[in-house]
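user: can you give me the structure for this one chain? tokens are fine.
assistant: on it. calling the predictor now.
[tool input]
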Amino acid sequence: MSYINAFWVGGLICALVQIILEKTKMMPGRTMVLLVCTGAVLGAIGVYGPFQEFAGAGASVPLLGFGNVLWKGVKEAVETEGFLGIFMGGFKASAVGISAALILSYLASLIFDPKMQ
């Protein structure tokens, strides 16, 4: 059942974002920022945790999940480091995901022949 929940919740998130892109004049970059900020706000008010438990990867993989990870990192770092945790927490919490994205995209560019259009 967890696979089904992940599938329909992730699909619903993607469908809503596609509707936002099609029906408004928001650029994709602004839409992505909106998703990350929404995930951080939902994490801050305590809604995203139960939602992620229900949906699993359907909620943790999209950009909403990235915003929630940033919020968790900042919250934890502020509790341990104080004010400087505001600047350090997001980097510590998301470093593995960002590093993996950079390394894998570089490897993909070596394997395939990317062309600018």
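assistant: here you go. The mean pLDDT is 88. The helical segments are 2-23, 28-44, 48-55, 57-60, 63-81, 85-111.
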